[in-house]
Automatic annotation (TrEMBL):
InterPro entries: IS402-like_dom, Transposase_6_like. It comes from Levilactobacillus koreensis. This is Transposase. Coiled coil: none annotated. Residues 9-80 form the Insertion element IS402-like domain.
Length: 121
């Protein structure tokens, strides 16, 4: 088992989504595999960087961008979301029972006459 770098999928996560990717097409062989390209896309989305700033370990940014476009146009990400949302792992669920009272002025309460007279001075 390899330890994933920051923003990358674990082996278990990859094994779960790998069958959803389209089969290899004829033509010139790809220089990067689907997992590497997908990890590059994840890195980009999670970091908020520009396409040109994708680290070289993921391959050339244009290759990753074209793969992203192809997958996006084919509906792969929607299919992936629908499939994975059927079986949530509940890993990132956070329940909070605290309540915070908002100040009266933040809720649009009317000003009292004493406040109005002090602001007009």
């Amino acid at each position: 088992m390899t330890i994933p770098k920051r923003y990358e999928l674990t082996d278990e996560q990859w094994n779960r989504i790998e069958p959803m990717f389209p089969a290899y097409r004829t033509g010139r062989p790809a220089t990067i595999d689907n997992r590497t390209a997908f990890n590059g896309i994840l890195w980009l989305m999670r970091s908020g960087a520009a396409w040109r700033d994708i680290p070289e370990r993921y391959g050339h940014w244009k290759a990753i961008y074209s793969r992203f476009q192809r997958w996006s146009d084919s509906g792969l990400f929607l299919k992936m979301f629908e499939e994975l949302s059927q079986d949530p792992d509940m890993e990132n669920i956070s329940l909070d029972s605290t309540s915070i009272r908002v100040h009266q002025k933040a809720t649009g309460a009317k000003k009292t006459p004493s406040t109005q007279s002090s602001t007009n001075s």
